Amino acid sequence: MYDQYNRNINYLRVSVTDKCNLRCYYCMPAEGVKLLRHKDILSYEEIVEVVRHGVGHGINKVRLTGGEPLVRREITRLVAMLSRIQGIDDLSMSTNAVFLSDHARALAEAGLNRVNVSLDTLDPEKYRKITRGGELARALEGIEAARQAGLQPIKLNVVKHRYFDENDRKALMRFGGRYGYPVRLIREMNLEKGLFSVVEGGSGGDCPHCNRLRLTPNGRIKPCLFSNLAYDIRELGIEEAYRLALENKPFSGSVNDSCTFYRMGG
Predict the structure, then answer these.
(1) Domains of the chain with bracketed CATH
(2) Is 184 helix (H, G, I), strand (E, B) or coil?
């Protein structure tokens, strides 16, 4: 699939839930958020239908995001359903890894290829502060479980948060180097102000070469993270939603004041 700027759109990020077990200060308010109604959340069958259509038209890379995808019940079943779609070369998941030790082996057996893990520091107290109560040890257990299950390469997504300093950078680089985990440094973003930049060590934020679309938990295909544009697959139909997203994908992001990170996966 090609957009109006002749960019090859081959990557679909699928947000399966707006729920999360953490409350990272740059993503969610401390008191949590008003969650989508259950009936508004796409079923696994609907997600598979959207993905299958995309794969039939050139999508070959699919990533499951949230919220935190591991809080959705029977997420391994969705992975198994997606892994059976011929044409997906890369089926991955973005996770905070807190629950990963409970699911890594089953996810690998279901067909998940790899994981990206959100890990902003290796300081337990700072981690607890950033996530508002998270336990670093659980995340590290999850990363190790993923390594043992073969969910590799494991990439570390590091937000350069307000508490981030050179000690964090050095510790994370050493950790990543020791185990062969690529470290991707992401400037803290702001949707409403349009603040974003190219990811250090990754491909995000590089608008001229953007190759992705996003599917929200309630069935909107979004052509750009930093845009209010969204096309409802239930109202428009899957084919039309894809068509409009491709036709209207902007050359560069601007602002987004109609959706939030926890409903798009960043």
Answers:
(1) 11-263 (3.20.20.70)
(2) strand
